[in-house]
């Protein structure tokens, strides 16, 4: 019997196009698909309880031999919409920042941008569940994923981290990539990429399967203008620039 590969994926709206093909036959029979939030999928890969994970790229330096195994990523060429610093006051008045517990890359990106781009010294607070209700006054917060999309109308000031990175470096950004902790056969990777690409070729089918209650944002715009899914040379350059900044 062929090996079933353990695949860890983020359960956010931005992954739905990548997962549509994985949840269909015959590819579905080749994998065990685990869904969680980014920081947990990262931990699963670090602990070797999955073989491939759509993980925050900030964990790559923590892996012994990280390998990006797919041409598909969660990236942006500018405004990403679902990763931002939310505040009720302008940047110059922010004193404290909650860091989203569901994230690794976005938290690290916020720290880099606050230091290098906005030239701000703030107190960072490790957030726990419910922290978004504490964002008020001079206390801001990093929010990612679907909760960020749902928060776009709640705050006076929204600093999009994908856009800020592009303005700071001139480069696109990679938030998450399919990373393996071991060699993966090329035959499986070819089928894996085909499964990833299926939903991107059938975006209207992807959107139609998402309940109206979850569509808190224009998903066609999100999938075609905000999220950029192909790992281009420019995105690789942005990724290397970010990993260098983490050092």
Notes on the protein architecture:
There is one protein chain. The protein is an alpha/beta fold and 247 residues long. It folds into two domains: 5-75 and 172-246, 3-Layer(aba) Sandwich (D-Maltodextrin-Binding Protein, domain 2); 83-169, Periplasmic binding protein-like II (D-Maltodextrin-Binding Protein, domain 2, 3-Layer(aba) Sandwich), CATH 3.40.190. The protein has helices spanning 16-20, 38-46, 105-116, 145-150, 161-169, 186-200, 203-208, 219-226, 233-246; strands at residues 5-10, 31-36, 52-56, 67-76, 83-87, 96-99, 123-126, 139-144, 157-160, 173-180, 228-230. The strands form two sheets. A six-stranded mixed beta sheet has the order 2-1-3-10-4-11. A five-stranded mixed beta sheet has the order 7-6-8-5-9. Strand 1, helix 1 and strand 2 (31-36) form a beta-alpha-beta unit. Helix 3 (105-116) packs across helix 5 (161-169). The mean pLDDT is 95.
Task: Decide which structural class fits the backbone.
Answer: alpha/beta
Overall, the morphology is: globular
Unreliable stretches covering 5 or more consecutive residues: none
- Specify the helix fraction band: 25-40%
For the residues shown, what is the average pLDDT? 95
- Mind telling me the C-alpha Rg? 18 Å
Biggest sheet layout: 6 strands, mixed
Give the count of helical stretches.
9
Share in β-strands: 15-25%
Q: Which sequence of strands runs across the widest sheet?
A: 2-1-3-10-4-11
CATH topology of the largest domain: D-Maltodextrin-Binding Protein, domain 2
Oligomer: single chain
CATH class type of the largest domain? Alpha Beta
User: Can you write the helix and strand succession as a string?
Assistant: EHEHEEEEHEEHEHEHHHEH
CATH architecture assignment name of the largest domain:
3-Layer(aba) Sandwich
């Amino acid at each position: 019997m062929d090996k079933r590969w353990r695949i860890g994926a983020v359960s956010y709206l931005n992954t739905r196009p990548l997962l549509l093909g994985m949840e269909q036959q015959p590819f579905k029979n080749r994998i065990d698909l685990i869904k969680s939030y980014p920081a947990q999928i990262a931990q699963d890969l670090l602990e070797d309880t999955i073989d491939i994970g759509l993980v925050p790229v900030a964990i790559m330096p923590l892996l012994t031999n990280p390998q990006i195994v797919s041409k598909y990523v969660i990236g942006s060429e500018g405004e990403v919409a679902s990763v931002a610093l939310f505040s009720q006051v302008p940047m110059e008045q922010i004193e404290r920042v909650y860091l989203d517990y569901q994230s690794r890359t976005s938290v690290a990106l916020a720290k880099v941008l606050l230091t290098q781009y906005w030239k701000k010294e703030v107190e960072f607070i490790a957030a726990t569940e419910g922290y978004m209700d504490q964002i008020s006054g001079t206390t801001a917060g990093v929010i990612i994923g679907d909760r960020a999309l749902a928060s776009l109308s709640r705050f006076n000031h929204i600093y999009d981290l994908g856009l800020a990175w592009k303005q700071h470096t001139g480069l696109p950004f990679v938030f998450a990539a399919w990373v393996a902790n071991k060699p993966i056969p090329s035959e499986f990777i070819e089928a894996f990429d085909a499964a990833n690409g299926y939903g991107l070729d059938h975006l209207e089918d992807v959107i139609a399967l998402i309940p109206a209650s979850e569509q808190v944002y224009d998903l066609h715009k999100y999938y075609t203008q905000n999220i950029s899914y192909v790992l281009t040379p420019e995105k690789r350059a942005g990724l290397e620039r970010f990993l260098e900044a983490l050092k």
